[in-house]
Amino acid sequence: VKVNLYNLPDSCRLIRDSYQKIVASACVPLTLGGDHTITYPILQAVAEKHGPVGLVHVDAHTDTGDTALGEKIYHGTPFRRCVEEGLLDCSRVVQIGLRGSSYNPDPYKYCRDQGFRVVPAEECWRKSLVPLMEEVRKQMGDKPVYISFDIDGLDPAYAPGTGTPEIAGLTPAQALEIIRGCKGLNIVGCDLVEVAPMYDVSGNTALLGANLLFEMLCVLPRVKTM
Fold it and tell me: In principle, which of 22, 45, 78, 159 could form an S-S bond with 154, CB 3.0–4.6 Å?
């Protein structure tokens, strides 16, 4: 998908236009980012066809900020813009793995005020997430769902190749439990964002990201696996 490297709002326009064509062709888009900004125009196109969608969002950060340096579009604001435009079914949004530094004492207040289910990373430590995903499947029901996976949801011990690493994150095994736990849902799109391979000389972050995308492919509706 072509983007304008010198104009972020125009890049969003180009992404939205491209995904309108992709979604119209009955394709379920599986996207490699890019930073998390891209999810905003993708969801504009997806919601245009499916209406407000549920969201399974794995991330160290809520990405519901309002502005940065006066700008309303950047990788920390996509889901606030989506809420404002009615792209999300807020009663069917879950955010998993949130943690890290914050600019205010209650960083999850906006999310909870919208009706999101917030699952901080500390609620995931030292446990399987299979029971959580059983609850998430019930929450999502049979209506359209989008999966957005920021690689920094994982601990930087496993995925250091990202722009905003935060300690004490999820494990690769938990990431698989989350994605595999989405099997059976009415998934209308997925993305894997914020992978920056140049920050990881081992190549492990790119390898992990590729495997997570493969796992997302395997849980898409009507995909047959052995």
Answer: 159
